[in-house]
């Protein structure tokens, strides 16, 4: 964040001009999102992720570990040199919570560091506890209880954050894991923390973190994708064609009658899992869109799977298999979509909430078990139909759960739509997230003014 003079800020939600039927909401504001802050940022980039690495990275810690180690060792020198030679150096560092080492870099530069959390406040509260001073006392395989957190949640060992499980299972003293642990601890020392969430969704956990960190600089500014409008701004002929075809297919169905199935941009299902899911969808009788990623020859050889041969013919008319990129936000926003079978990644959770769509959870790793617990146990706006990255569901049981959820469960549907209204309200002018974003910028401006005197 570079230095800038006093400015004003307005935020809201842009209108949806799609010709396809979208979910309506009386809570949607009329104003368009706009920022009057000058765009004076200077990006510093690392090489982009190569899609061909996915097969190597699936289930592997080593490539991530190598990148993290090199970044934390080498990046500070270049950034310090750039900072000192810049005519208008940054007033603060805003960095991802995985980059805890940037807290110490900010100290060296004499500027505040702001930790940005792309996961939720509930997950962060649990992660903060696990990575604390007594992290080494947590025994692998043990049940994890968090009596000091709102609702006193508990997790099985398999549901614990993946990175922490690897840390404990690797044994004490692994230098790379100790560096990660130090980075997690540094997050709690940052001047401020910013979350892609909103008060009505996670207010009790945001307040817990404010008390834990000992300061009020814990800002909720989400759902961030709503600040740029309710649908993706994808461009290109392929993007527009796929989006138009999928949404036109949805137009023929009744409100809240279609299930959207997608497990994110990274997770691949094993062949047995994909076959069980396909059979469950077929037996359930529900209408659905299943977004699948095309597999490479190597991924097929490694045992990953997709929609089985003949499946599309057997479900023709009520099921659509979308191969490749899917316009997820547009699909979820369509009036016909009433359920989302998801891995419960945080972005997917927020996109479902913003669309008022009930989550049917199949959490697999990372923060996903905690995200599912938030929606299912705390908010009552979803149901868990399976869990585990290696679990092969029973097709008959899965079919029954999908059918019952899509053909009934009105309480969960109503609560999902109530959360949507609260999310829309949060990003309106005067809403909790809009106000927090304003407050963050104003506080940074005050810090910069004091420093320049």
Can you give a write-up of this model?
There is one protein chain. The protein is α/β, with parallel strands linked by helices and 453 residues long. The chain has two domains: 9-226 and 428-452, 3-Layer(aba) Sandwich (Rossmann fold); 234-424, Rossmann fold. It has helices spanning 54-57, 62-85, 102-109, 121-130, 162-170, 175-187, 199-213, 237-250, 271-284, 297-301, 311-314, 328-333, 346-355, 368-378, 395-407, 410-427, 432-452; strands spanning 9-10, 34-35, 93-96, 113-117, 144-145, 154-155, 192-195, 218-220, 258-262, 287-292, 319-323, 337-342, 358-361, 382-384. The protein has a six-stranded parallel sheet, with helices on both faces. Helix 2 (62-85) packs parallel to helix 3, helix 4 (121-130) packs parallel to helix 7 and helix 9 crosses helix 15 (395-407). Mean pLDDT is 83; it is low at 1-18, 26-59 and 232-238.
Low-confidence stretches: 1-18, 26-59, 232-238
Tally of strands: 14
CATH superfamily of the largest domain: Glycogen Phosphorylase B
CA-to-CA gap between the ends?
19 Å
Overall geometry: globular
Largest sheet strand order: 11-10-9-12-13-14
- Secondary-structure arrangement, i.e. CATH architecture of the largest domain: 3-Layer(aba) Sandwich
Under CATH, the topology of the largest domain can be stated as Rossmann fold
- The structure class reads alpha/beta
What's the mean pLDDT score?
83
Largest beta sheet, briefly?
6 strands, parallel
Region (Disordered): 1-33
Family: Belongs to the UDP-glycosyltransferase family.
GO molecular function: UDP-glucosyltransferase activity
Keywords: Transferase
């Amino acid at each position: 964040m570079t230095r800038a003079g006093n400015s004003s800020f307005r935020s809201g939600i842009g209108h949806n001009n799609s010709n396809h039927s979208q979910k309506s909401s009386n809570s949607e504001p009329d104003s368009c999102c706009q920022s009057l802050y000058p765009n004076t940022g200077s990006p510093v980039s690392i090489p982009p992720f190569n899609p061909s690495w996915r097969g190597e990275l699936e289930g592997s810690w080593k490539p991530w570990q190598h990148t993290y180690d090199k970044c934390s060792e080498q990046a500070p020198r270049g950034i310090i040199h750039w900072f000192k030679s810049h005519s208008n150096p940054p007033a603060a560092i805003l960095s991802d919570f995985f980059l805890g080492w940037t807290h110490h870099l900010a100290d060296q530069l004499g500027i505040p560091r702001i930790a940005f959390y792309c996961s939720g406040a509930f997950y962060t509260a649990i992660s903060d506890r696990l990575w604390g001073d007594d992290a080494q006392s947590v025994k692998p395989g043990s049940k994890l209880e968090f009596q000091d957190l709102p609702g006193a949640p508990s997790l099985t060992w398999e549901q614990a954050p993946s990175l922490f499980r690897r840390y404990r299972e690797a044994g004490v003293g692994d230098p790379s894991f100790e560096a990660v642990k130090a980075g997690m601890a540094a997050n709690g020392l940052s001047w401020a923390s910013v979350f892609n969430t909103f008060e009505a969704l996670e207010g009790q956990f945001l307040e817990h973190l404010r008390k834990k960190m000992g300061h009020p600089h814990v800002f909720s500014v989400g759902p961030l994708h709503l600040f740029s409008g309710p649908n993706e701004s994808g461009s290109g002929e392929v993007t527009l064609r796929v989006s138009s075809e999928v949404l036109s297919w949805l137009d023929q169905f009744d409100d809240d009658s279609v299930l959207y199935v997608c497990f994110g941009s990274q997770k691949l299902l094993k062949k047995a899992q994909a076959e069980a899911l396909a059979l469950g969808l077929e037996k359930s009788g529900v209408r659905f869109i299943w977004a699948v990623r095309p597999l490479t020859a190597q991924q097929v050889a490694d045992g990953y799977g997709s929609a089985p041969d003949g499946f599309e013919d057997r479900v023709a008319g009520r099921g659509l298999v979308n191969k490749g990129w899917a316009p997820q936000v547009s699909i979820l926003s369509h009036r016909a979509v009433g359920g989302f079978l998801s891995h419960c990644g945080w972005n997917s959770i927020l996109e479902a909430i913003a669309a008022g769509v009930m989550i049917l959870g199949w959490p697999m790793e990372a923060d996903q078990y905690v995200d599912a617990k938030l929606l299912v146990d705390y908010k009552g706006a979803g149901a868990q139909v399976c869990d585990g990255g290696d679990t092969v569901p029973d097709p008959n049981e899965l079919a029954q759960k999908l059918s019952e959820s899509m053909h009934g469960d009105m309480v969960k549907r109503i609560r999902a739509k109530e959360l949507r209204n609260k999310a829309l309200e949060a990003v309106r002018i005067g809403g909790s997230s809009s106000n927090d974003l304003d407050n963050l910028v104003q506080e940074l401006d005050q810090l910069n003014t004091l420093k320049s005197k």
